[in-house]
């Protein structure tokens, strides 16, 4: 059965397992409600995949509108473009996802080491869990790439597809950082 949830467009991607304060133009949500947060591009187009979230708090800032304190839960396909949309869960492992977690973990550590060397605050002791779905979310939360590129990772399909794409992005970004530092690239 599909859920119908309020849609909250956001200029960033809400990664499952993370929290954020999301500006909203709607006043019909309260703490405890479930919503779907969808990336909205500058031209107004929205991503096909969003993140369900629990609203943990709502407040009205002095500058107007509403701020929703949310906790991202799971990736979903968003069916429809209105203020509410049917959502269908898409978080599934895929055939080879479990085998990819260790490889992606190593690449993430190399990437974080390169970020640290470049003064970008990378934690070289980073780890991701063994669950491939959660691991794909964790990796996405550490990438310092454009929001549309994060969205493309989430729209790639199951955790196998996401982890494969993240491995390529990690290799590319590590190579770029090492080149900027004048280091030999592997």
Structural notes for this entry:
There is one protein chain. Helix 1 runs parallel beside helix 2 (132-142) and helix 1 (97-117) runs parallel beside helix 4. It contains four helices and six strands; from the N terminus they run ββββββαααα. The chain is 33% helix and 27% strand. The chain folds into two domains: 3-89, LON domain-like (Archaeosine Trna-guanine Transglycosylase, Chain: A, domain 4, Roll); 97-180, no CATH class. The protein has helices at 97-117, 132-142, 147-154, 159-180; strands at residues 3-10, 19-24, 34-39, 49-59, 66-79, 84-89. With 186 residues, it is α+β, with helices and mostly antiparallel strands. Strands 1-3-4-5-6 form a five-stranded mixed β-barrel. The model has no long low-confidence stretch (mean pLDDT 89). A hairpin with a 4-residue loop joins strand 5 (66-79) and strand 6 (84-89).
What features would you highlight for this structure?
single chain, 186 residues, alpha+beta, Archaeosine Trna-guanine Transglycosylase, Chain: A, domain 4, 2 domains, 5-stranded mixed β-barrel, 27% strand, globular
Which class of secondary structure composition applies to the elements? alpha+beta
The helicity comes to 25-40%
Indicate the CATH architecture of the largest domain: Roll
Overall mean pLDDT: 89
Radius of gyration: 17 Å
Strands, count: 6
The tally of helices reads 4
Q: CATH first level of the largest domain: which class? A: Mainly Beta
Overall shape: it is globular
Largest sheet: 5 strands, mixed, barrel
CATH topology of the largest domain: Archaeosine Trna-guanine Transglycosylase, Chain: A, domain 4
The fraction of residues in strands falls at 25-35%
For the record, what is the CATH homologous superfamily label of the largest domain? LON domain-like
Q: List low-pLDDT spans.
A: none
Give the topology string: H per helix, E per strand: EEEEEEHHHH
Distance between the termini: 48 Å
Strand line-up across the major sheet: 1-3-4-5-6
- In total, the number of domains comes to 2
